[in-house]
Amino acid sequence: MRKITIYLSLLLSLALIATACVSDSEETTTTTAATASPDTTQPDTPDTPDTTQPDTPDTTEGTIAPAGPVLIGSIHPLTGGLAGAGNRMDNGARMAVEEINAAGGIASLGGAPLELVSADSTGAAEVGQSEAERLIGDGVSAIIGTYQSAVTTLVAAIAERDGVPLVIDVAVADSILDQGYTNVFRIQPNATSMGASGAQFLSELAGDEIKTVAYLHDDTGFGVSVADAFEAAAADYGIEVTARIPYPPFEVTDLTTEMSQAAAVSPDVIVITGYYNDGLLAARAATDLEVDVKAVIGIAQGAFHTPQFVADFGASAELFFNSNYHFNASDPVVQGILERFEAAYGEPMDTEAMLSYQAIHVIADALERAGSSDPADVRAALAETNLADHFMAYPGPIAFDETGENISAQPVLMQVVDGAVQQVYPLDLRETDPVFPGTAWSNN
Amino acid sequence: MNPVLSVRDATKRFGGLTAVNGVTLDLGEGEILGIIGPNGAGKTTLFNIISGAIPPDEGEVIYGGDRIDQLPPHRIAARGLVRTFQVVKPFSGLTVLQNVMVGAFLRRSEHDEAEDHARKMLEFTGLAAQSDRPAKGLTLAARKRLELARALATDPTVLLLDEVLAGLTPTEGAEMVKVVQSIRDGGVSLLVIEHVMAAIMALSDRIAVIHHGELLAIGPPAQIAKDPGVVAAYLGEEFQIAPD
Amino acid sequence: MRGRLRQAAWAVLAILVAVILTQSTWWDTNQTVFAQALVSGLLIGGVYALVAMGLSLVFGVLDIINFAHGALMTIAIYASYLLFDNYGIDPYVSLLITIPLLFVIGVGIQRFAINPVMDAPIHNQLLLTLGIAIVIENLALVLFTGTPRSIELAYARNEFDLGLFTLDFPIKVFGAVVSLPKLIAFMVALLLGGAIYVLIHRTQLGAAIRAAAQEPEGAEMVGIDVRRIYTITFGIGAACVGAAGALVMPFLFVSPTAGATFNIIAFIVVVLGGMGSIPGAVVGGLVIGLTQEMTQIFVPGSSKLLGVFVIFLAVLLFRPQGLFGKVQR
User: Which of these CATH numbers, 1.20.1250.20, 2.40.10.10, 3.40.50.300, 3.40.50.2300, describes A192-324+411-429?
Assistant: First the structure.
């Protein structure tokens, strides 16, 4: 009996520590199996080549010698609770690599092909970090990743230390680029941008009709930073956050109590920030409670803009808003990419996967301009990026400021209308008129 | 007389030590066969062989017309050959009644049927008043009777009793002897290991003496008491058959 | 006499607290929230009880901690989902399949993986079940990808006319909502819990299980095949999550880690309720469910599980045998 007690206490202390780390504004997954195992099983990993990319000595300037492949590392959660998104992102990157190679590779490197080296962060920051070190040791010219702010923070530190550029496809926390790094670039809008744009959209969408907000958000760094930014920006628009209700996103099986708390302050709207699973639970709770609000609005919410949410939640998904990054759905080039992804991988492409796809293109563009696969040269080229020909739903080109943030990145407001996720705001990206006020249960 | 249980040339070795060496004996129907011998002579090992706890290295055990020496204990018990333990093994989390019901459930699948039968066994062993007490709260004497009652509840044909009198006061011991006799009167054949000489001599129809793992002598008590080999090896000059 | 006095004092205190609570302004504005927390906590607590019951049984009889318990639940969740998605089988009908399916899987795991190491040191057994959990989880990942799926029951928001009254789901109880799938899960979980209790305490098999748990040698001696009992018990434990998985599928989501949340909670419930105690699992499950929700409303800004961990530590410190457990040697 005593031995069993000791083992149980050990196990639960581990879990306690894991959740304690969560409140330190780090994201983590809850699965004891995944976080406990240091195994990085990588289902799709191509064999790490024994040919490291040749050093491009200065003597080759002007002479284009056919070079070996350019290695690009891709770190995402391929196993564990976030494996769905992680694998899609890795596939998005893979598809981009294949298409670029099919189109002739990197011309300025003599048609050198790209090679994606996939790595599994398992959702754990330390694993992502060690994978980054491994990839750098294998000679990657750049890295993309990682979907989680906590993991990206550690990977960014390694990238900066070893001088290998990291292009963040998905990770929202502001703090990652508050370090004065020069090797880290982000193409998605950061937390401040998410929160601030979200507040701006709300005020422009509804004018005076939204004065009070109850904010439900995950208690990891992701949810907290977005909510903080929203609250600060909202004040400028005369919108008050009257209740903030954090919850642990990977441990909850029900959010009805939390939603009840939100409804109790009688807000004009309920705002939600979080991941897919908890988004689903929140949507269910709101629907069960038939919360008496003018709208339910996701801000950087992982579910409400996905085709899967609409497919699985059915008619009840109607009229949920989400202010989030999104690919430019009205662009026929983008539509082609979506079709090819679904044909190749058997599931619809989400924005996260598109961001990974985009990140590869950003690196390819930098490689073309650098004419070199040396990480330092790639980094310098990345800093000069001015890519107007991109796939995301914001008007400006992808260009990075001195901290590495994409100056053009901003979210777009979407709503589920007539059973499809549609862009409703800003006006020049509008696919359909928004329905406000409105919720699926009040519009019966 | 047709023996109800036969042991033929049973031998068991543990490393270099031969604990039981070529023991052969028969148990007659309705007989009480006492087994005596110095500590470490191999008596409990013999019980272990018969009850199936360990298989013999050589020899056979025949019960009910079949060889049982290679069967696991629970199968042998299910066939009607049941033993008790020197250090009793009650189900400590259950009540007295529930303990005996576990035994009753061997041949009865209905809860109420099993309960009725268990209560009868508790009456028989004088434990009825303690039916609802937790088993672990009992005195040693009561726990020994509980072990007995539980074994009886399985409707055994042959019962192996391992030092059922050990640790009992003379009064308790005398009562236990009466219970054992009633069991035999009810048609059960018994093999009884015992150190309390007066009791075993009075109780048994025959006595088997085990010494250094071998069967030294077997016969009616009076004959055993007088056997010079037995006296020399075990009983000592001072022993008298008639109890004081 | 002193005991009675203390009980009276506690009762007075409880009444005072209740009076203050109900009269305060907090209560006025938060009645609904409190009711919702109460209701949500109890409903999920019923499921926790069922999951914990299976774990407790295995623990009490085989003396092993089954780390694969949550992974087995994941199998049940997937099974129920696939039956629904491919054949349109209602999840509650799928219980008839998931329960025996998991029983068989449990029997298989016990006979071929665990039985051989029953006499090995305890940490070997823990690692073995942990390994099984990892294998199951990654198998699910490979077969189904990590994308979480979910379903909505077509009739979850229907009205049901029961003659005397109609139930329009989600129904309202003191201002709190009770959704149909959660209510069904709660009721079926408690029903199955009762069935298991009857099995353990009123049947021949149950007597054999308890005997084998407490004194294997003594059980052998009255004709009980203890190894077979171990196998059957493990199967029953797996059948518990076979049921729980199908019950939660309609209101949770289907992913390789779906059962993992219940794993840790189940352990805490078992420790709280007492290892090997079925009533303990029920009481413990309800208490943990309530604690979770109450922590959410009374200690805002903290993890829901904080209160649960606090209880866990308190139990280990002050009453390690749990509420219904017996003091161990």
Answer: 3.40.50.2300
B114 touching chain C per CB within 8 A: yes
Q: What is the DSSP string of chain B?
A: --EEEEEEEEEEEETTEEEEEEEEEEEETT-EEEEE--TTSSHHHHHHHHHTSS--SEEEEEETTEE-TTS-HHHHHHTTEEE--SS----TTSBHHHHHHHHHTTT--SHHHHHHHHHHHHHHTT-GGGTTSBGGGS-HHHHHHHHHHHHHTT--SEEEEESTTTT--HHHHHHHHHHHHHHHHTT-EEEEE---HHHHHHH-SEEEEEETTEEEEEE-HHHHHH-HHHIIIII-TT--SS--
Judge contact between B46 and B33, C-beta under 8 A.
no
What residues of A are in contact with residue C329 (Cβ under 8 Å)? 1
Q: A313 — contact with chain C (CB < 8 Å)?
A: yes
Establish whether chain B is in contact with chain A, requiring a minimum of 3 CB pairs below 8 angstroms.
no
Q: Where are the alpha helices (DSSP H) in A190-267?
A: 191-206, 221-236, 256-264
Quote ipTM for the complex: 0.84
Residue A113: name the closest of A77, A66, A149 by CA.
A66
Chain B to chain C, count of Cβ pairs less than 8 Å apart?
79
C64 Rama class: left (phi>0) / alpha (psi -120 to 50) / beta = beta
Q: Rounded to whole angstroms, how far apart are CA atoms A247 and A229? A: 18
**C25-62 vs C204-214: helix crossing angle, rounded to 10:** 80
- CATH no. of B1-80+156-238: 3.40.50.300
Rg of chain C on CA atoms, in Å: 21
Tell whether the model's pLDDT for residue C13 goes beyond 50.
yes
Whether the CB of C170 is below 8 Å from some CB of chain A: the reply is yes
Closest residue to B89, CB basis, from C202, C217, C326: C217
Per-residue pLDDT tens for C134-192?
999 889 888 887 778 888 888 888 888 877 888 888 888 878 899 999 999 999 999 99
d(CA A153, CA A128): 10
**What phi, psi does B158 have (nearest 5°)?**
-125, 135
Contact C142/A276, CB-based, under 8 Å? no
**Subunits in contact with chain A (3 or more CB pairs closer than 8 Å):** C
- DSSP summary character for residue A436: -
Residue with tokens 């006979």: C111
How far is residue C236's CA from residue C109's CA, in Å, rounded to a whole number? 12
Q: Are A271 and A212 in contact (CB under 8 A)?
A: no
Best CA proximity match to A96, nearest among A397, A305, A336: A336
Q: Which residues of A touch C148 (CB under 8 A)?
A: 84, 276-277, 280
For chain B, the structural domain boundaries read: 1-80+156-238, 85-154
Nearest CA in chain B to C203: B111
Which of the following CATH numbers is that of domain A65-189+327-409: 1.10.10.10, 3.40.50.150, 3.40.50.2300, 3.20.20.80? 3.40.50.2300
What pLDDT band is residue C94 in, cutting at 50, 70 and 90? very high
Q: For A11-58, what is each residue's pLDDT tens digit?
A: 555 554 444 443 333 333 333 333 333 333 333 334 444 444 444 444
For the cut 70, the answer to whether the pLDDT of residue A334 exceeds it is: yes
